[in-house]
Write the structure tokens for this entry.
Amino acid sequence: MKHFTTPGCTPGYLDSEFQATGNLNKKSDAYSFGIISLELIIGQPAIKKPGSIHIVGWVSPMIERGEIRSIVDPRLQGDFNTNSALKAIEIALACAALSGMQRPDMSHVLADLNDYLEMRVASKRTEQSVLLEDSPLVLGTQSFPHAR
């Protein structure tokens, strides 16, 4: 006996291919991941109210105009790395592409996120090393062991 799960039909989260065919696939998961990621980055729901523009519809033109700082959740008060925000938005938009053929597999998304995280961590280490090299080393008398 097979059990089937019927997905909830919350507007804005299910890809248009599922809505047209009723068939879910791996790329449907990528779409939902992209929408939820955009919501987290932007701090807004996928659709604010019935009949209004979908999140992808108003984020995409802003990205094209380079308005990254005005897209990210204002509750962060500008305290974020612009390059990191742009990378996260690019991944989310790739996942939310209208055509499933254009969407990455989730394994590819995970690899992209891990690669970017490794790059950021390495960059932070380099920044810290440079700061340590540029900082003068000041030793006080309390830094040396006392003779017994």
Q: What stands out?
A: Residues 97 and 103 are 6 Å apart (CA to CA). The chain has a mean pLDDT of 81. The longest helix spans residues 106-134.
